[in-house]
Write a structure and sequence with these properties.
Length: about 450
Amino acid sequence: MIRENNAKLLLYKEESYLIQGGAFEIYKNFRNRHKESVYLRAFVEYLKNKGLLIDKERQIPIYFENKKVGVYVPDIVVNNCILVELKCKSQINRDDINQFWYYLKSSDFKVGYLINFGKSNGVQIIRRVYDSARNKNKLFRVGLALLFSIGLALSLPVVGAEIYFGSQGQKIGIGKPFEVGVFLNTEGENLNAIEGKIIFPIEKLEFQDIQEGASIINFWIKRPSFDGSSILFSGIVPGGYYDSQGYLFSLILKAKELGKITIDGKELRVLRNDPTGSPAQVRISPLKLEIVEESQTPEFLPPYDTEPPETFTPQITKDPNVFEGKWFLVFDTKDKGAGIDHYEIMEKKEYRIQNLGFKMGEWKIGESPYLLKDQKLKSHIYVKAIDKAGNERITELPPQNPLGWYENYLIWAIIIVGIIIVYFLGRILWRKSRNRKYFASV
């Protein structure tokens, strides 16, 4: 994941871009379904293919009172300048981060990465730089406490949540599709709602698709969509979200003109997870890329997905401010692979005919909220979620006001067929009885 945030000051910028891009690529292919050793081997191969020097045997001595008391062996050392530790846990905790920070401080390295592939909603990447802290300790040792104090006074804290972007490289080959991830860093806030627009130069970039399979958003009020000039989105995280690597969705774009581009956002708004849903400050960190003739950045490939969308339960409700107080359907689900493509809805009173193999009715493409045609709520309702790989999940809601027996066409059909059968059986029996009497009289 590449964050275009003070890029000129980014220590070991090229190595950092490749490490973060590799983590993003590996998670896209493997998700959180494998052991840590699998991610380690894949990560090593990825970085080697990018021309980076990888050391898996580096031993870092640990000292206590100037005596060596142990050895720390990181998972990977990249280009003799960056430590990388991999995890595969549902959530890394404060102890994991503190231990990683201690190891980095105990070494001569300035930059370290703690990467967790175990989360279900996206790869978790923590980058730490110890260079500034080490230099400040040197200032203390030479007695420049005053200068250090001035440095602290001039340091300005970061305020508000941050929307930032991730890409697999800074240089994009013309004519090739590529992926840009959109992420949320809550910066210590507990947030539960976000909305806004993502903008990019449409004269240089062609919109192709949106992926949101592993999004932290549980309920989309406005699913990310392209309106011809920007990407609109609005969603909710019930219970709130509190982290720095919140994956929202990805844009699939294709470069069509050489030059430098900026992907940015506007009209952004986030709400806190508190009783009043109070607004929180939010800022955007734009992503700057360059479109070139040839690039080593890998072309985007759709994820291999054979899993249907997650199970879900639609809700029937009504509100005086929605659809003039009529009954409507609310539904939403997630797909951790390719992402939801669309929904289809079907209402049918004679649903049981389907069990006998008869055609049941037609599916209609719709969105939530969906105005119900049957306002008497006597129909069986089916909602089909279809992901971008074509996998389907169908959920059925039974009628809230079931049909009376006299309203069920199937029952009437059975009664009529029964009457016809009884009639013909009666006719046959009557004819047989009449024939016996005739022959008996002869």
